[in-house]
Amino acid sequence: MNRFTRAFRELTRRETPAAAAESMPPGIIPPSRRATSDTPVSLVPVYRAIDIISSAVAQIPLRVERGGVEVPSSEINPLVKRPSLTLTRPDFLEQITISLAVSGNAFLLAKRANGQILELIVLNPHEVHVAIDSRNQRIRYDYRGKTYTNADIQHLRLMTLPGQIMGLGPLQAAKRELTGATLMRDFAAAWFDNTGQPSGILTSDQALTREDAQEIRNTWNNLDREGNALSQTANPSGIKVLGKGATYRPILLSPHDAQYIEARQFSTREITRLFGIPSTLMLIGTEGNSMTYQNVEEDWINFVRFTLTKYLRKIEEALTQFTPRGQTVRFQINALLRADTLKRYKAHKIAMEAGFMTINEIREIESLPPMKEAPHENQ
């Protein structure tokens, strides 16, 4: 089980009555939160989209800057290097991303000891109740029977609507469309599991009595005269022998069913657009467009700029709150914006020749260790 699956199950697990009662203020009983067959997160395209975004975020390296210059490792707050005592940094970043994608919100609880922050805990967003305290008009967070303030919890919102204290995520924004996709998926499962439409027709060129028709049908379905299932021991291959001119004609996919398949494909494309994922990453084709190497590269760059960056900036701002004044946490996405190796190296060459990047700065972008001796940094 990979780390995405573990985090995804944790964030969509069903709460027991006891846990649910503790997670909300008195008198409020939250609904079940498990990803069941009637929820959008159980749709394959939705799972795939969240997996792509969270995996991408978890793989991008972080750096701490002061005035655009990288801060030495010895001066970086250990909380940024390892925010959680129980999770690796990629796992930690992945849980934040999944929270934002699933609910539009992520909550980081600062766990303290003797006034010092020991670690950051990613809370299940479905267990956090956010409200404005009527006494002082400040936001409070209720989680498992305890109340916290902004000093304890960092609240990340994927999209904030005016006048709203909760963020808006893709699943909430397109609830109606995703509900339709879920119902369509469930209809398909029910159609194949328990459909009233026959899979085929038995016909004969002879006149048949009711008893003859019943006998032929029972023979085809491997039933005895009373309609009870017969053992396959005597006929393990399942070969059917029909008499009296009987033949079997399967019912092929009707035009109506073909339209249903087109509707399923449409739902997948809509989910792809909703999450801002390139169709190539979602393993689906785009009608009317010829896929070329340049198209794929442009799609990837747009994915980084207009989808990943939204998640990355939210996380950067949250982690920056736990660094000394003047320091900023930044994801290194330069390499992602130049996916092609040859183009990336050409860009590095231009940067060095122009004198605004050094060899070690370029090696850092390529995740390489710095050169101990670089006497001609700008050459």
UniProtKB/TrEMBL annotation:
Organism of derivation: Mobiluncus mulieris
Domain of life: Bacteria
Stretches for region Disordered: 15-36
InterPro entries: Phage/GTA_portal (IPR006944), Portal_HK97 (IPR006427)
Name of the protein described by the UniProt record: Phage portal protein
One Pfam family recorded for the sequence: Phage_portal
